[in-house]
């Protein structure tokens, strides 16, 4: 098992919503075309009542990610954050730092993945692989 690439798709608030969604879609569409994954794994949408706008914005991004997957006939698996933490760190309430260190150990990386979003994505991928019957270590 090897990490082919990591990164974060970033947008800025000064770009209108439709432009940000388009940037996310284009980046994911390009990555999927380049790497041809057999499965895409997304974190289940978590909404905190104090920040409903964040959940709505994340839903837009998830929608175009799912669209890109569908266009390439790639199945999408959605996992709850607590499940990913249990699989990766044996603790459903593990901290960001714990996830980073567990991912580093499982993937035998020289340094912990940074930023934490990259570690989260790798943890999702590892958990998705475990769901398919692949061994993590």
Describe the protein in words:
It is a single chain. The chain is mainly α and 137 residues long. It has two domains: 15-78, Ribonuclease H-like superfamily/Ribonuclease H (Nucleotidyltransferase, domain 5); 80-137, no CATH class. The protein has five helices and two strands, in the order H-E-H-E-H-H-H. It has helices at 17-35, 52-71, 81-89, 96-107, 116-131, and strands spanning 40-43, 76-79. The chain has a two-stranded parallel sheet with strand order 1-2. Strand 1 (40-43), helix 2 (52-71) and strand 2 (76-79) form a beta-alpha-beta unit. The protein is globular. The mean pLDDT is 92.
Can you give keywords for this protein?
single chain; 137 residues; mainly alpha; Nucleotidyltransferase, domain 5; two-stranded parallel sheet; 6% strand
